Amino acid sequence: MERSFFARNPSTLIFITILAVFTLGVTLLSEGLGVDVISTSMVKTLGKTLCLCLIAIAMDLVWGYCGILSLGHFAFFGLGGYMIGMWLMYERTKAIVVSATAGAPLPPTPQEIRDGIGTQIFGVVGGAEIPPIWYFADSLFAQLALVVLIPGLLALVFGWLAFRSRVTGVYLSILTQAMTLALSLYLFQNDSGLRGNNGLSGLQNLPGAENVPQSLISIYFLWASAAALALGYLLAAWIVGGKFGSVIRGIRDDEARVRFLGYHVEGYKLFVFTVTAIIAAIAGALYYPQAGIINPAEIAPIASIYLAVWVAIGGRGRLYGAVIGAAFVSLVSTWFTGGQAPDIPLGFYTVKWVDWWLVLLGLSFVAVTLFAPKGIGGLFDMLSGRLAPQRHGADLGPDQGSFREKEAEQ
Amino acid sequence: MTRTVILALRAALFWLMAAIAVNAQSPIQDLLQENRAAVEKASRKTIDGVIDELLASGLPQTREVLAKWREKEIWQRKEDGLFFFAKPLPNKNIQLFDIETGDPVGEFDKKAVKQLKPNSGVRSVIATALVRYQLTDPDPRKRAEGLRAIERGPEASHLAALRAAFEGEDDPALLARKQRLERLLTISYDEDSAARVAAIESFTGDLGVDARAALNPLTSTTRKAAAELPTNANIKAVIKPGTARLSRDQAYALLVAAELAPARITAAEKKDALIANIVEGSVAGTPIHTLDTDAARTQAYATLAAAGTVPAEVTAADVDAALAAHVFFDQYDEPDANVTDAAQEALTSISTKVGVNQMFDLALDGLSLASIYFLAAIGLAITFGVMGVINMAHGEFIMMGAYTGYVVQQVIPDYTVSIIVALPLAFAITFAAGVAMERLVIRWLYNRPLETLLATFGISIALQQLAKNIFGTQARPLTSPAWLDGALVFNDVVSISYIRIAIFVLSVIFLFLLLFVLNKTRLGLEVRAVTQNPRMAASMGINPDRINMLTFGLGSGIAGIAGVAIGLYAKVTSELGADYIVQSFMTVVVGGVGNIWGTLLGATMIGSLQKGIEWLNPSNTLAAQTYMIIFIIIFIQFRPKGIIALKGRAAGD
Amino acid sequence: MMKRILSAAVLSAVFAGAADAEIKVGILHSLSGTMAISETTLKDTMLMLIEQQNAKGGLLGEEIVPVVVDPASDWPLFAEKARELITVQDVNVMFGCWTSVSRKSVLPVIEELNGLLFYPVQYEGEESSKNVFYTGAAPNQQAIPATDYFLEELGVEKFALLGTDYVYPRTTNKILEQYLKDKGIAADDIFVNYTPFGHSDWSKIVADVVALGADGKKVGVISTINGDANIGFYKELAAAGISADDIPVVAFSVGEEELSGLDTTNLVGHLAAWNYFQSAESDLNDEFIAAWKAKMGEDRVTNDPMEAHVIGFNMWVQAVEKAGTTDVDAVREAMYGLETPNLTGGTAVMLPNHHLAKPVLIGEIQEDGQFDIISQTEEVAGDAWTDFLAESAVLKSDWKDLDCGMYNTDTSTCVQIKSNY
């Protein structure tokens, strides 16, 4: 231990400071605790953006550092949301049922309360029974544990199967995409017991906090999201900082070589894959109570591809790049699709951003890949003058990175 | 001159008065006017009386009136409520004709008249009534129409009419239909048991839905409970309660329904009884607030029952005794045992055959789905499989092909010609798009496959949104030519639509075309050379840039043609391609990258597997897709390189 | 970047303050994503209605300003946009949503912030929110009459309930199953199948439906298939040569707009049940169609949810004029009992349960993609809680006198004021 963790990672300290200042600033300007400049819906958007930044960090860890282009991390994000959503929904409904039966001539039996909850939750999707997977839904502690356990276990099993049979590169990407598609299709089914297409809703109403206004709840969640993001960033920085980080970067650049050096490549990949899945799940568990509703469309393959887009635009292989990418793209997206961006009249045609935003996003994405593979993060390199050696644009590629470097030197 | 005019006027006046007189006196009009309310608001339930009256009247116009009524060609004049035949004129007015004579009555504004719109239930009742006129009609089409009406709504009276209509039937096809119908009606309506049995036996092994439709009602049973087995009833089987076929609860419910045993007290009734007996905050001495468990409530109820305030609960012993004292059995609704036995036997023979044919049909469906997946994936098999380029915009090329088909149909109204134009045009357009994309984007990224994935994804969302901006979000019609309408029907169980056959043929053509191009032409040789080792190929005088460009164009062009085909069979929307992209990638991966045969096998496996799972769980199609994907994930664990894995140097690594 | 967002927020706050004088109508329909296909039309309808109203001199002397947002078929985004519309844009009323899940997503937000939403699409019922006016059909205004038509008029004895796998078909089919059982149809004679959104491979399901006829009972299909999946379904139906006389299909989600995506020559005679068809004969309808075509193009069609918006908007305008303010509570009080002509020639009445009384129309598909109306009932009062499920039959909704959307008539208590979502 020659230098302290922060001394080795100056960007960590800067990042945490900026995050703290940002959180404080939003709090002071908010409707709930401040001078009411930022509306509650904006606070919620910012809180959700922080959660997206957290899953972007997970994505950067698994893709930018370990070279596994997972197109399925939103599956873990969604599962985390579902796990916490089950408790929120169950408890809120229980409160309603208990208060509704309070005036009845006979006190309700536990079975009657359970039946009442079942009818309330599943009535809209044509059922009344509470499915077995809701077994732990009445316990906050159990569901919080499940937030970590279920996605972690899924990642562990899936990763073990995939890495064991040495599925790599684009095959792995397609396989992870298939996983998230299968999960979303499964959840779309009513029989899955999680209300099918309808998903779980009303999650912003916290049980036991009925009298706390949303303006305050949104601030609390902003704090929680900021804290989770800070911790996630520290964890990620710690993971990539040491020898472990060198090994996974080595795996990214030339997996076979690392294996020949005697490292257990599968174990490293599995660890990174599982840890990032858990980070994603925690991000999801914080995101959906702010969004208010979770349904299977959230984990459709396209969401995970967007995640890769954020990280690529922000700049892979640097943690702050992922955060910047996620925050920038999702906020700009909100701005453009919200109808606030001014139309551009061209005389013969008026460019409406609602219609053209996606075209712009798609094309700018192509442009980033082609002309600025380092993404926005590359700007920081220019500022600090720390330019990487010219490698014909191939420095960050997972496959043949180091191979190319040798070529470049010739 | 003046005289002629006056004469003409007089003639006209006379004619007009005569017309009015006829209107007033026309018996068929009178008959309809008598039943005016029932005719105006025709309902299947109330129309029989009117039709019977019309038929009984024996008026010569009855047939035409019924036929026109069915065709929605009878209109009512609002001012006097009279009924007329009518024909809409080009100037939007309505020309009315008298229903008795068929003479024109005059033109009326659309607002002055009202069309009678019998619903399809009423129309089928009318069609059934018209049968009597049609079976011996000289026009074979009319006779066929009559037979169709009997098939849809058979009645006992049709049996005699059919038998009488055999004679003079010179069309062998119609005669066969008549005979078959006669046998079907014999099963249902003949009085003679032997004739019915003979008719039933003639249908042994018949696959027609109509045959099963006639036989199945004969074997329908009703589950009954009684103190002892009735002697004169046609009983199928005696059932013991407490078995898989009849649980004890079901058996007791049967007894309750037959009022042979007292009903059980439900939890809700118990609760109501307790509430009804609340006295000063307690029930039967138990304070209310303790009644929050089922056990406590049962206890309190038992106390009430002991006091005689409420009926006692049915105990397990009561149930046992009641079940033991009664017999449960399935009784045929058809009293004739000979008939039911014959029907049962015929149905058994049919059901085996139907099972085999259903399997065959399922296999056809699977094959058809496989060919659709193959067609969607085959372009990808070239760009991804052979060149190793991940093209997420492949689905959008399919979509471009489909929209090309739509646009061509807007310009060329003839569906056959437009398809013939659209196929090569779609190829040309997507070929050009593919070449442009390869030149502008992909060639810079050959060393970075993951980034190709992301860049092409960017192109994919841009193209999708562009399609929305240009064509709107509504689905656009892409109609197949008339010769592709309908289905190839083997029998009532096995059939496949022509459009699916066309897609199948198209995918087979492409399979062989590609195999030919890749294996037998110079281009194919060069493609394989460039794919395996671009440098070596270049030093042999092959221009890798050109080859890459052409190969990518070819793969994209095929996607365009696939788009036209898929648009014909499903829908044309901007999301059309996105629906197929993941599936297509999986098809290629499962089949084995770099091999057209592999893609074929992959598509076949995925298509038939999906149909197989659908068959196991017919009420939930989503489940089939989910389990199929899970299967693919597991499959790839065991064969990471797909069904056909390239070996040796061709494998590339 | 943060600075930009903050300044945007400040700016919008300033604008909101300055623009308090005008009346704002929020339009919350997806303009992108899967639902854009249906919802874009409704946005255009609203813009046209607002334009017409402004041409008449606006409302309370003010100009009506539409605020269009795009929730992009993303259900959580519906909640976010609704909150934004109410708190940032300060809209007085919102017209929007299509799918049930989007409505359920918006519900908690508008109940919390006391907003007002007009929901124009036929839906599954079992809900009554204080802040929502349901101008589309409840099950008893569409599904039940259509089923009756099948039972009574067509003599159907065996039912195939085909639906897309989401809330509306699930709940509607649950109600219908119970209703059919009450009518003496055996459980074995009801075949239920759910398919995903955008399903295109229908051959197996169509073959299954044909096979249902094997026991000699007349088969009918009740379709709650949604959106573009219908195109593949009807194409397969036509290819299999199933005529409406053999196996009639009645659809609850297929209107003129959906039919414009396919060739209807082979579908003639199949049915749809709605509260409005473009072919309805009335002067108001002719006017509306003419205005719509003039604005959007000659080939555009009108449909039922558009009529619902027409009724909803006209009622809201009346209510605002009656109340003399756009205040949500005052407008809501003023809504009850209001009457406005509907486009099919009758009168729509707003009931205290926030539903409309509307006629039920059944139409047969014609070759030109229009519907031939073969049955039209009197106005049917929309029922928030269905009478055909035991647990819902005891509930009623009355916001005028009882001030409760979920009132248990057995125990005479209000089960809950807010909705369950």
Summarize this structure briefly.
Chain B: It is found in: Cell membrane. The complex is a heterotrimer of chains A (410), B (653) and C (421). Chain A is mainly α and 410 residues long.
Describe the structure.
The complex is a heterotrimer of chains A (410), B (653) and C (421). Chain A is mostly helical and 410 residues long. Chain A has one domain (5-337). Chain A contains 16 helices and four strands. In chain A, the strands form two sheets. A two-stranded antiparallel sheet of chain A has the order 1-2. A two-stranded antiparallel ribbon of chain A has the order 3-4. In chain A, a hairpin with a 4-residue loop joins strand 3 (344-345) and strand 4 (350-351). In chain A, helix 4 runs antiparallel to helix 6. Residues 391-410 of chain A have low confidence and may be disordered. Chain B has four domains: 2-121, no CATH class; 135-219, no CATH class; 265-313, no CATH class; 354-651, ABC transporter involved in vitamin B12 uptake, BtuC. With 653 residues, chain B is of the alpha+beta class. Chain B has 26 helices and 13 strands. In chain B, the strands form four sheets. Chain B has a five-stranded antiparallel β-sheet with strand order 4-3-2-1-5. Chain B has a three-stranded antiparallel β-sheet with strand order 6-11-7. Chain C is an alpha/beta fold. Chain C is 38% helix and 21% strand. In chain C, helix 2 (36-55) packs parallel to helix 11 (304-323), helix 3 packs parallel to helix 4 and helix 11 crosses helix 12 (328-335). The longest helix of chain C has 20 residues, at 36-55. The interface between B and C is large, with 63 and 60 residues. Chain C: Residues 1-21 form the signal peptide. Chain C: Keywords: Signal. Chain C: This is Aliphatic amidase expression-regulating protein.
